């Protein structure tokens, strides 16, 4: 049965690759990347086995193996929706028992490029223990336990994310949280490495980390050969028991989660509201501006495709806190970089409307009203966020004298960006992720030119905001409060002027280009 499912999987894959040459090229590059990675890993294992002792080999095996398991756990969230050729939902109509379905899914996970690469790399850990024959023999079943842990944990995570996401909202929340964690990985690693470097004993710290991980479900299997090489038979047996218990527990939990996810109908992401409740539509002014304002603000507060762009609000302060510290100047001007990112968030705003943009055209709303509504919706989120970052960073550093200059540069960039985007979004539509898609799923139809457009918009924003930026830079370098206040006034005045001009020009442009934008949106590939 498992062999039949695998044959069907590979037949589907072959047909897909033959039908789409670009996907075939990506598959080939994926295989080449896997081969390069395997070669690097094996070369590293050989170097450790020849030039290092048992202690270093144990650190490499345990920390590397633990990282591998974590990668498999996070993987289903990162690639959600990209490979659904064989899953539990598609196998549900067939007369398979729950365990047969699990065996088939585990086989599918193990026989893909990641699974094959993982299995070979895990078996290659035997090289680390060639000088200890007993440990080398034990490394084979230990590696198989580690690989089985990876596959089962991955399948469990995928099932839970689908069950969490029997509704779309759950998948979106999980994807956004993981995206935020991945973005913060760099600063966290930088801070950890700096901490290790300051301690003066990196090897000791890594050995302590490996010692802790060896008693956890993600590291126990990889530590069994290390303990045998060190003569710790009792601890090796204890960790082997942990590894076996982990596999059994993953299988049991996955079986229950799989049964629940297949037998229960998908839940819609809905909520009950009181009759007559209109949400933001009942709060905003009536008319075209108010309706568009309410719709735009609802998108910024509830649509994960917009919310993900707000990740940059805490990202830059945290990034500079890890890299340059509180006293570094980058941390003090984090608000300017936050504004720089948010300024172009709506450069192709109509793209997120999709074919629903037709309702706006049919409603007869004037282009100027649509532009004002979108600007006000974005400003309700962007202006408070930038102000909060500026005030918070000044409070942490105690440099309140910088606040006017920082606010001047930040507000100047942000408002200018809103004005520029009011025009650019009336001219530009690009393929964007569909609602509910993983943030890591590639968007069909994206081109290199589409990626360059955002840099063009950034360049225009920087030029138009130059007066406020120059004044703010001079004020910060000379510690002049007067110039800081002038920078704030100039930033707000120039930014407001650009917003008004952008709304007027963008409104007229949208009335002319609206039908063409809708046709281009409909022509975007969807799969």
UniProtKB/TrEMBL annotation:
<feature type="transmembrane region" description="Helical">
    <location>
        <begin position="102"/>
        <end position="129"/>
    </location>
</feature>
<feature type="transmembrane region" description="Helical">
    <location>
        <begin position="482"/>
        <end position="505"/>
    </location>
</feature>
<feature type="transmembrane region" description="Helical">
    <location>
        <begin position="173"/>
        <end position="196"/>
    </location>
</feature>
<feature type="transmembrane region" description="Helical">
    <location>
        <begin position="274"/>
        <end position="294"/>
    </location>
</feature>
<feature type="transmembrane region" description="Helical">
    <location>
        <begin position="57"/>
        <end position="81"/>
    </location>
</feature>
<feature type="transmembrane region" description="Helical">
    <location>
        <begin position="451"/>
        <end position="476"/>
    </location>
</feature>
<feature type="transmembrane region" description="Helical">
    <location>
        <begin position="375"/>
        <end position="398"/>
    </location>
</feature>
<feature type="transmembrane region" description="Helical">
    <location>
        <begin position="236"/>
        <end position="254"/>
    </location>
</feature>
<feature type="transmembrane region" description="Helical">
    <location>
        <begin position="404"/>
        <end position="430"/>
    </location>
</feature>
<keyword id="KW-1133">Transmembrane helix</keyword>
<keyword id="KW-0472">Membrane</keyword>
<protein>
    <submittedName>
        <fullName>ABC-2 type transport system permease protein</fullName>
    </submittedName>
</protein>
<keyword id="KW-0812">Transmembrane</keyword>
<feature type="transmembrane region" description="Helical">
    <location>
        <begin position="329"/>
        <end position="350"/>
    </location>
</feature>
<feature type="transmembrane region" description="Helical">
    <location>
        <begin position="135"/>
        <end position="153"/>
    </location>
</feature>
<feature type="transmembrane region" description="Helical">
    <location>
        <begin position="24"/>
        <end position="51"/>
    </location>
</feature>
């Amino acid at each position: 049965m498992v062999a039949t499912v695998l044959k069907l999987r590979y037949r589907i894959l072959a047909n897909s690759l033959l039908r789409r040459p670009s996907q075939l090229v990506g598959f080939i590059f994926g295989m080449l990347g896997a081969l390069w990675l395997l070669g690097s890993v094996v070369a590293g294992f050989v170097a450790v086995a020849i030039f290092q002792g048992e202690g270093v080999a144990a650190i490499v095996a345990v920390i590397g193996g633990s990282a591998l398991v974590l990668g498999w756990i996070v993987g289903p969230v990162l690639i959600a929706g990209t490979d659904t050729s064989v899953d539990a939902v598609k196998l549900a109509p067939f007369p398979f028992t729950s365990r047969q379905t699990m065996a088939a899914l585990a086989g599918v996970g193990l026989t893909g490029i990641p699974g094959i690469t993982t299995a070979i790399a895990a078996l290659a850990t035997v090289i680390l223990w060639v000088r200890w024959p007993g440990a080398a023999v034990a490394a084979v079943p230990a590696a198989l336990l580690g690989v089985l842990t990876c596959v089962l944990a991955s399948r469990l995570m995928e099932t839970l994310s689908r069950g969490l996401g029997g509704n779309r909202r759950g998948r979106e929340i999980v994807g956004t949280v993981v995206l935020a964690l991945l973005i913060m990985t760099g600063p966290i690693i930088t801070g950890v490495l700096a901490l290790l470097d300051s301690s003066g004993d990196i090897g000791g710290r890594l050995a302590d980390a490996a010692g802790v991980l060896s008693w956890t479900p993600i590291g126990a299997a990889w530590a069994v050969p290390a303990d045998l090489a060190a003569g710790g038979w009792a601890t090796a047996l204890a960790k082997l028991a942990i590894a076996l218990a982990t596999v059994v527990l993953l299988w049991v939990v996955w079986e229950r989660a799989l049964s629940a996810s297949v037998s229960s109908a998908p839940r819609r992401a809905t909520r009950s509201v009181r009759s007559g409740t209109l949400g933001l539509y009942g709060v905003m002014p009536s008319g075209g501006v108010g309706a568009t304002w309410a719709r735009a603000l609802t998108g910024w507060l509830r649509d994960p495709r917009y919310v993900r762009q707000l990740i940059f609000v805490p990202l830059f302060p945290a990034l500079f806190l890890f890299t340059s510290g509180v006293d570094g100047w980058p941390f003090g001007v984090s608000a300017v970089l936050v504004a720089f990112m948010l300024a172009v968030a709506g450069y192709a705003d109509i793209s997120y409307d999709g074919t629903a943009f037709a309702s706006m055209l049919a409603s007869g709303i004037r282009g100027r009203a649509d532009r004002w509504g979108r600007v006000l919706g974005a400003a309700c989120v962007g202006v408070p966020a930038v102000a909060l970052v500026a005030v918070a960073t000044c409070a942490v550093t105690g440099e309140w004298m910088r606040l006017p200059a920082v606010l001047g540069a930040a507000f100047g960039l942000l408002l200018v960006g809103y004005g520029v985007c009011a025009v650019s979004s009336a001219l530009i539509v690009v393929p964007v992720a569909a609602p509910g898609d993983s943030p890591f799923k590639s968007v069909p139809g994206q081109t290199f030119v589409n990626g360059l457009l955002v840099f063009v918009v950034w360049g225009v924003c920087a030029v138009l905001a130059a007066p406020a930026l120059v004044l703010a830079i001079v004020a910060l370098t000379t510690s002049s409060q007067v110039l800081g206040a002038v920078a704030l006034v100039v930033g707000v005045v120039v930014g407001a002027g650009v917003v008004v001009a952008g709304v007027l020009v963008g409104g007229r442009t949208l009335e002319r280009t609206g039908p063409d934008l809708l046709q281009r949106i409909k022509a975007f590939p969807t799969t």
